[in-house]
Amino acid sequence: MVNSPYRSPTYYELPAPPELDWRPYRPASYFAYREEWRRRGAAADPGVFPLHLDLDPTNRCNLRCPMCPRTYYLSQGQTEWAPQGLGDLDFALAESLIKGGASQGLQSIKLNFLGEPLLYPRLVDLVALAAQAGLWVMLNTNAVALTENLGRELLLAGLTDIFFSFDSPYPQEYEAIRVGASYERVLSNIRAFMATKESLGLKAVQTRASLVLPEAALSRERLKADYTRLFRDLKVAEIGFGLPTVMGRDYSSLNPPTFTCPDLYRRVFVFQDGVYGPCCGDWARRIDLGSLQDGRSLQEVWLGQEYAQLRAAHQKGDFRAIAACRGCSVPYLSTVTM
Predict the structure, then answer these.
(1) For residue 293, how far is the Cα from the chain centroid?
(2) I need a surface site. Which of 72, 207, 253, 290 has the fewest CB within 10 A?
(3) Distance between CA 306 and CA 102 in Å, rounded?
(4) 3-state DSSP assignment of residue 164
(5) Is residue 321 classed exposed, middle or buried when 0-12, 13-18 and 19+ CB atoms within 10 A define those classes?
């Protein structure tokens, strides 16, 4: 297997070196799933059921990072992203989604969106539920609450992929971005997690550290080199660099003339209160796909009129007519040099 750096819209990733590569330890079914993921996006084919579910266990967070949409909405006093306030996902709703989805073709789940998943009281149970259903179980975390014991429980429950959001290799800069976090403490948490993973012999578990590059970095190359060195020393497999989205900006005039979002054909989002969403950019819930509370099943939403209209608009080049898509940076950033 050949490893090479690759770009996805708004994102660049350095893959794992051979000694840290998790791919050789995964079964053929994983690569079949990833090929179907690629194919659906390229062919604009939604199939009959989503491949992936992004499920937000909680919309609470322990940090106030300036580039985060959650921080932006709180600062603006906007409540569309959390109309019922702060809270946690009903476990019974999650159970029905996961078990029902796995029986119909769901392949993977990522347990976070706008909140910090480690704050969810039953996160270990949620990971175990998804793993026992046969799903690849992923989560993004700021790692502030990642105790050694919690890390071990998550790994033993069946967590397959963990992505650390850590936005600078330099202590002062990190703490200015990750407001409320301690550089040394979080690095210690990640170090302990990596040691636990190694002691358990879980070579198939993917680990990744990523940062959002500042818009005006004095030396992005130096920043990326220092960041890579820091996390390679911790034996984190993948190193990722993302591009920033400016909250509140209308990207219509910046976007290319045509763009078909591949995520409309492979993944769906469910917010902490059971409301469905089509993508990671519709934080303000401008696209109404219904709710679990209304009795709408995941398949009904996936094959429903609202999703069909979204896909048709993208295929016809009319994505700028959709308010949520006008605020999306992905089409624009996919044309920008990292």
Answers:
(1) 24
(2) 253
(3) 23
(4) strand
(5) exposed
Q: How many CA atoms lie within 13 A of 199 on its CB side?
A: 11
Q: Tell me if 266 sits within 8 A of 279, measured CB to CB.
A: no
Half-sphere exposure at residue 37, Cβ-oriented, CA atoms within 13 angstroms: 15
pTM of the model: 0.92
- Cα-to-chain-centroid distance, residue 250: 23
For tokens 């994102």, the residue is 11
Strands 238-242 and 206-212: parallel
Tokens of 20: 């840290």
Distances (CA, A) of 233 to 120, 217, 229, 237, 258: 30, 24, 6, 10, 42
Helix (H, G, I), strand (E, B) or coil at 238: strand
> What letter would DSSP give residue 321?
G
- Asked whether 238 and 16 are in contact (CB, 8 A), the reply is yes
> Which of the residues in the chain have pLDDT under 50?
1-9
Which pLDDT does position 5 carry in this prediction? 31
pLDDT at residue 2, as a whole number: 29
| Residue 151 φ/ψ region, left for φ over 0, alpha for ψ in the -120 to 50 degree band, beta for the rest | alpha
Burial zone of 7 (CB within 10 Å; 0-12 exposed, 13-18 middle, 19+ buried): exposed
